[in-house]
């Protein structure tokens, strides 16, 4: 086994010298340094149902199904996978933090033993970082991830979204959005500033370019208010005024939330949106209070300021937010997917102890399949998990007192 540190340094030094199209060749050239004959990058497509090879000259590979292959199992479980009947090959999750980008295929005579695992992880993390840093300078990564033409409305929304998954030692946030190639009205955003995680989930009325234009305004107004230091109520008011000013005959529903990661205190405004679910101990226990404000753009119809609901979370609690495209999806006989089916799905996923990103992926795939792969509305879901490694003793006493 060669010096993995030298491989990492070599990749970091040489990646900026070429374009994104050359990444696959660059990574392949690093293979001999870790006693591998081949290293191949596979990227998850937008639906997260296929892993698509990013190939250099001379390599031939097929797409890998996320559902039925070892490569897919590495992607869904976030663990290295190796086949007993093919000991020279391993599949390594391609992660940046908790953001799943795809997998690496590494072919090596040492792949059958765990001595390859540590260097494989280190190379995979480095490759993920290079992909993120270099993909904006060309279109190869975007082209490889697209299995269908993307509509302009979807191009607008995807260009505004943050990474689908973000995690720290005490927080996880992950989201999913469908239909990938023709979305328009759903959008979300989040930001961690000091000890406060801010989250916004929005659903604008309409479809196509008009909906994506309103979504762009909503998320931009949300970011502007947040970055200007406005509190949750004034943030909602600011978005409301911008929507009414620029699109007076339209509106957007939304969830705006702030989570204090020190204490677990969740503050939330529900602006005409479906209620979020509180998940605890492997099951959905209740729906958080419904609308506490009018939809964004309609605030002038009420003299009341938006009301903030406050919830003190338990360690390990999760909040599931979703748009009505999830619950309103209909089967061939017209039956809605509905809240009960959503709760049942989430309970089973939690009991299976799936990673949060995989729970989101399976949920949206279930909704798409329920509607025969043709969604009539955007379907978006978002998980926030609070998992503090420890809490101050005084806060534990306060929690115990509040629950007694």
Automatic annotation (TrEMBL):
Gene Ontology molecular-function annotations: phosphatase activity
Keywords: Hydrolase
UniProt cross-references to SUPFAM superfamilies, sorted A to Z: PP2C-like (SSF81606)
Domain PPM-type phosphatase: 136-386
Protein's UniProt keywords contain Phosphoprotein: no
PANTHER family reported for this sequence: STAGE II SPORULATION PROTEIN E, STAGE II SPORULATION PROTEIN E-RELATED
Protein name: Serine phosphatase RsbU (Regulator of sigma subunit)
């Amino acid at each position: 086994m060669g010096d993995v540190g030298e491989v990492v340094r070599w990749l970091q030094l040489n990646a900026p010298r070429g374009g994104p199209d050359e990444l696959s060749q660059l990574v392949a050239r690093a293979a001999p340094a870790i006693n591998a004959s081949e290293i191949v990058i596979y990227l998850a497509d937008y639906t997260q149902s296929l892993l698509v090879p990013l190939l250099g000259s001379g390599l031939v590979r097929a797409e890998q199904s996320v559902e039925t292959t070892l490569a897919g199992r590495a992607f869904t479980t976030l663990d290295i996978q190796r086949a007993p009947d093919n000991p020279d090959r391993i599949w390594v999750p391609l992660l940046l933090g908790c953001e799943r980008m795809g997998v690496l295929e590494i072919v090596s005579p040492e792949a059958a033993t765990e001595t390859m695992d540590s260097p494989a992880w280190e190379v995979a993390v480095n490759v993920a970082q290079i992909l993120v840093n270099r993909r904006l300078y060309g279109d190869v990564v975007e082209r490889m991830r697209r299995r269908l033409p993307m509509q302009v409305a979807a191009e607008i929304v995807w260009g505004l979204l943050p990474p689908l998954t973000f995690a720290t030692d005490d927080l996880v946030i992950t989201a999913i959005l469908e239909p990938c190639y023709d979305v328009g009205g759903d959008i979300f955003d989040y930001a961690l500033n000091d000890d406060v995680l801010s989250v916004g989930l929005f659903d604008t009325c309409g479809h196509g370019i008009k909906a994506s234009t309103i979504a762009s305004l909503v998320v931009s107004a949300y970011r502007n208010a947040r970055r200007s230091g406005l509190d949750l109520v004034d943030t909602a008011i600011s978005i409301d005024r911008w929507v009414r000013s620029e699109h007076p005959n339209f509106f957007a529903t939304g969830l705006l939330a702030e989570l204090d990661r020190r204490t677990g205190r969740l503050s939330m405004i529900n602006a005409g949106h479906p209620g979020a679910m509180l998940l605890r101990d492997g099951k959905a226990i209740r729906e958080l209070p419904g609308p506490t404000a009018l939809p964004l753009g309609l605030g002038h119809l009420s003299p009341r300021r938006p009301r903030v609901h406050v919830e003190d979370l338990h360690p390990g609690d999760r909040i599931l937010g979703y748009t009505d495209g999830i619950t309103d999806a209909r089967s061939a006989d017209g039956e809605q997917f509905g809240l009960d089916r959503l709760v049942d799905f989430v309970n089973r996923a939690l009991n299976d102890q799936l990673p949060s990103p995989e729970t989101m992926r399976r949920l949206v795939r279930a909704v798409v399949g329920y509607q025969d792969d043709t969604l009539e509305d955007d379907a978006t879901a978002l998980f926030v998990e609070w998992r503090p490694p420890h809490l101050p003793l005084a806060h534990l006493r306060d929690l115990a007192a509040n629950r007694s």
